[in-house]
Amino acid sequence: MSGLDPVAPGWYQVHRRTQRWWDGQQWTENVIHHGRARTATELRTATRRMQWLWVAVGVAAWVVFLVFSFGFGSSTAFVLAGLPVVGSAAIVVGVITGSRLIAAVPPTPGAATGS
């Protein structure tokens, strides 16, 4: 005996509200994310899109702040001072949460990979 007992096939929690099927020897492409069946490749692709969307929202908030503050003066910049905070938070939260989910659902050996 090697000291490690085999893990039974079944659904296992790999991330918050994300389960993946273990066939007894390796992870399969079968994933349930927020109650919806998907493949691991589809989930990683959708997560990457979500990350870029949040980065775009954050950058847009910064651009609006800079355009209005340079175009309309410091009083407008003071009114819009929350935009850089919101923009930075959108970038950080999107990238961190997306990266954690992508890391929790690694590619399946032998499966087609998408980008």
Task: Give a summary of the structure in a few sentences.
It contains three helices and four strands, in the order ββββααα. The protein is an alpha+beta fold and 115 residues long.
Keywords:
115 residues; four-stranded antiparallel sheet; single chain; alpha+beta
Order of helices and strands: EEEEHHH
Number of strands: 4
Q: Biggest sheet: strands, sense, closure? A: 4 strands, antiparallel
SS-based class: alpha+beta
Large-scale geometry:
rod-shaped
Gyration radius, rounded? 21 Å
Oligomeric composition of the shown chains: single chain
Count helical runs. 3
- Give the integer mean of the pLDDT values: 85
Distance between the termini: 41 Å
Topology of this structure?
Layout: E1 10-15, E2 18-22, E3 27-33, E4 36-39, H1 40-72, H2 74-79, H3 82-104
Antiparallel strand pairs: 1-2, 2-3, 3-4
Helix pairs in contact: 1-3
Describe the structure.
By secondary structure, this protein is α+β, with helices and mostly antiparallel strands. It is 54% helix and 19% strand. It contains three helices and four strands, in the order ββββααα. Strands 1-2-3-4 form a four-stranded antiparallel beta sheet. Strand 1 and strand 2 form a beta hairpin.
